[in-house]
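SEQUENCE-TO-STRUCTURE ENTRY
===========================

Backbone structure tokens: a row of integers, each naming the local backbone shape at its residue.

Task: work out the structure tokens from the sequence, keeping to the layout shown below.
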Amino acid sequence: MRRQNELRLAELKLGSLTDVIVGATALRQRLGQLQLGARSEVKTFVKAPVAIISGAENTAEDAAVARACATGCCWSGGLAGG
């Protein structure tokens, strides 16, 4: 019981996880890992200009949505190509 309380306290202190990724290849790989492993939600923050992965290529996001995992993205600046 004590261990469960310690784990719960650690979860509360952690809150949410922030991962900073640099480079297109690393970003594609990590985003896929996050989306495939997520249980409830994946949020991303994207700075323009960006063209890392197309919707058609991002099959991991489709898998996350199929598991009822919420996905969201916050854009900084303009959208790519627009």
